Each structure stands twice: as C-alpha cells, then as structure tokens.
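hey so i finaly got around to running the thing on Ribosomal L1 domain-containing protein 1 from Mastacembelus armatus. pasting the sequence first so u can double check i didnt mess up the copy paste, my clipboard has been acting weird all day
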Amino acid sequence: MADRTEVVLDQAQVKKAVQALQAFLKNKSTSDFSLLDDTQTISLLFTLWKIPKQAQTIRIPLPHGQRSDTDEICLFTRDEPNMTSEQTQRFYKKLLEERGVKNVSEIIPYKVLRTEYKPYEAKRRLLGNFDMFFSDDRIRRLLPSHLGKHFYERKKEPLCVNLQSKHLARDIQRTIQGTTLKVTNKGCCCMARVGHSGMTAAEVTENIEAAVRTVMAKIRMKGSVMKLIHIKSQTSVALPIYTSDLSHLSVDKKANTQAQAPKKEGATAKKPAKKKQTKDKKQVDAAAEGKAEKGQKKKVQEEEEEEIPQLVPIETPSKKRKVEKPLKKKQLKKAPRPAAAKKGAKAQSKLTQKADSKVKRKAPKVK
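ok and heres what it spat out for the 3d tokens, dont ask me to read them lol
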C-alpha cells in the first residue's frame, strides 16, 4: 500500500533472541523430563498501530519447512455427481497421484463428513488423528457448521486448495511448509507460527525475515502499520525483535494539517460570500421599512385633514320612572298524592272499619 513505512529487522538482534529462546526451551525440557513432545512451536507476535477495519488471512511461504514428512494430512473433497462416496475417494486418489501429491494420507468426501462424523466423539477422534487438514475450495463455506468449534480453537481449521490447479503439488507443498497469519478486526495483535525448537537458529531467523516481508506486503492497511514484533513460544516470555520509531507520528500530523488547510481556505472563502448576502438582505429590509413608514405617515396626514363632525345627543324631557310593585308571593299548592298511595290508604281505611264492626258485634250484651 502507499505511504507505508518499511520494517527493517536487525539480523544479529533477531538471531540473539532466537538463541536465547532455544536455550530456555532446552533447559525447560531437561528439567521437566518431557520425552514425548520434545519440540515446541516458535511464533511471531505482531502488534499493530491501529485495529484493522477488515479481517484478513495472509498465507506466508517459508524458506525452511516447519513440518516433518511424517505428519498426517487429511483432505475434504466435494461429492462428485453420479458417484458414491467410495468412487469419489478413488477418483481423487488417482488425481493426486497423477499430479504428484504424496503427502495426503486420507480423503474424506463431504457426504461422509456429514453422516459418519456427525457425533461429537467422532469429530474429536478426527481432530486427534491428523496434524493438518485441507479442503476443496468449492466446499469451504459448508465446513464450519459440520466441523465444530474445536477445529478452530486448536487452530487446525482446513486450508483451502484448488484441486483443479495445474500446479497442485507445488501449491500443497507451499501450504504445508508455510504458515498463515489471521488479522482480525477485533484487536491489534496477531500471531503466526514460523518454526519449532528442533530447527537451527539460522533457519528460524530466515523464516522470521520472510514472514515479516510478506506480512508487510500483503496487509490491507495504509500508513504506518507495525508497532512491535515479538518472538515467543507457548510457555516463554515474548522477546522483542522490532520496535517502531515515533518519527512517523509527526509525518502523519503534517499530512493531516495539510489535508485540513485547503478545507479551512474553502471555509474562509465561503464566509465573505455569506457576509455579502447578509448585507444585501439588510439593505433590502431597510428600504422596505422606509417605504412602509412613508405610507403610514401619508395615511395619518389624510386622516388629520378629513375631520369627522362630532354628533351631539338630543336632550328629551325626563319622565318619572314608575316604581315597580313587589310581586305577591304565590301560595304554594300541596303536591297531589300518587294514585297508588290513595288506593293503599282507602284499602287500609276499609280494613279498619271492618275490624271495628267485628269487635262491636262480638261484645256481650249487658243485662
């Protein structure tokens, strides 16, 4: 990219850091008596000035391979039309033999991956049986949902290969002996494997130089990119091999000021134009106000000249007002009883009369 500062490594300093790291790993291996897994990976830790806007995967070819010939490699292929899974396996084995590829130990079609390696235990077994995985670039988007997160946590996700390429053997060999750098847009640090403790210091330093060159050439960022570069293993402290200069910060500031200067000039050029517009508006408003005042004065003068005659009221002989007599209070009439109440009262009166007559009849006669 344009306007990018170059990263120049001090070869002697890098070699000293590699030798110190290898000495530390040897002392640790002898103290722990680790006989099985004696070699440890050596990685580069890149620290960027800014967090990238887009995620990116950079393939780095290395001059000295970091994998042995005994590593087990698995290849995931697509399902060929009008063929069973066994026929597709035979087809791709024959294709690899014709192209001169001898490193692939097993071929698994996509249909077999979906059916036989669906359980969790089968996926874990597949992950432990192989050291590296390749996939046909035509099915790369279908694999993550079937493989699971463990492949990506252990950094054993399959690497894409174009099986239709004419230089298939060279491409596979480069990817096996090379490495990859994953630049994420979630942080400013990324790591790439460049060697192991069984390699010599000269081989590791050459791999480091090649990796830094390819990363600086392929990374999608402008301006000054690299802030720090460290070398470390899985269990060691990070040793610095490159620290960037702060001189580029002043250059960036100058570039920003130069970019902002024309903007300010354009803004200053716009201001006088705005002032002129405001002046013109003020003049127009003042002229309109003067006309309005003149018109109002003319109207007042015309009103003063035309005097309206005042109307005089005519006096009439006063008459005595009649004193109003107070109104007599109307007597309040009693409200009539309802018909139901009258009937009830009549019925009660009749009952009382009958009772009295009965009492009179039963009374004994006095002789």
